[in-house]
Amino acid sequence: DADVTQTPRNRITKTGKRIMLECSQTKGHDRMYWYRQDPGLGLRLIYYSFDVKDINKGEISDGYSVSRQAQAKFSLSLESAIPNQTALYFCATSDPGTRSSYNEQFFGPGTRLTVL
Amino acid sequence: GENVEQHPSTLSVQEGDSAVIKCTYSDSASNYFPWYKQELGKRPQLIIDIRSNVGEKKDQRIAVTLNKTAKHFSLHITETQPEDSAVYFCAATPSGSARQLTFGSGTQLTVLP
User: Fold this and answer.
1) Which long-range contacts does B14-17 make (Cβ < 8 Å, 24+ apart)?
2) Do A103 and B103 make contact, defined as CB atoms within 8 angstroms?
3) Could you give the CA distance from residue A101 to residue A85 in angstroms, rounded to a whole number?
């Protein structure tokens, strides 16, 4: 089945380290997103990309950067991790042009990141 | 930008009872309102959605209602079952080409046996 995958699934790191979270999809979707989930705050958009040459900041982009290496790959980097970036990170994809649901987003399994 | 508020943050109901979760949005241009369900340790998944040209939509035991004038929409789950226990997120998106979703803060629904 076409899917969205994320690596790693869990990561513990130290303050100041550079971290990359990777997302791959076999759905053939053009649009990809990175969210972080914190208890009581829901899902907040970090960055999104509508195609390989398009990168856009979301609600909480400070401290993060992204790279869209191909249609199927979208990576999130923390250049210098800090403890308040400890969260559950989700990648998602969508393709409004082909689905009956207006803008259904398909989420990956998540990466739990802990910054000590 | 869009702001979505969701209430309550936690909800406990007896099995077989109904559950209602409410959301309000700020951008009158928003025209698409999905609901996602996230089971413990799992990824969020779309369960139902509604567009602004529709007032209500049903799918078996779940339904969503939309009041555009008041800028609020609600999720209704009838005859709740233990497998309905999860976190539910509402979301909204404005019209236009940049269709990113703004999510509410989530509701933890617990269905008590």
Assistant:
1) B14/B80, B14/B111, B14/B112, B15/B80, B15/B81, B15/B82, B15/B111, B15/B112, B15/B113, B16/B79, B16/B80, B17/B80
2) no
3) 32
Tell me the C-alpha distance between A106 and A104, whole Å: 7
Residues of A in contact with B30 (CB under 8 A): none
Give Cα separations from A32 to A102, B44, B58 (angstroms): 15, 15, 29
Q: In terms of Cα–Cα distance, which of B37, B5, B22, B7 is closest to B102?
A: B5
Query: If you average pLDDT over every residue of chain B, what do you get?
Result: 92
The model's pLDDT over A29-84, given as tens digits with 9 standing for 90+, comes to 999 999 999 988 899 999 999 889 999 999 899 999 999 999 999 999 999 999 99
Q: Cβ contact (<8 Å) for A42 and B34?
A: no
d(CA B66, CA B51): 9
Q: What is the pLDDT of residues B17-63, one digit of tens each?
A: 999 999 999 988 888 899 999 999 999 999 999 988 778 999 999 99
Residue found by looking up tokens 């989530």 in the block: B106
Smallest Cα–Cα separation from B101: which of A43, A64, A1?
Answer: A43
CA A83 to each of CA A15, A80, A88, B71, B80: distance values in angstroms, whole numbers, following the listed order: 7, 10, 13, 37, 39
Pairwise CA distance, residues A62 & A57, whole Å = 9
- For residue A74 the two structure tokens come to 């979208």
CB contact at 8 A, A89 and A82: no
The verdict on A55 touching B (C-beta cutoff 8 Å) is no
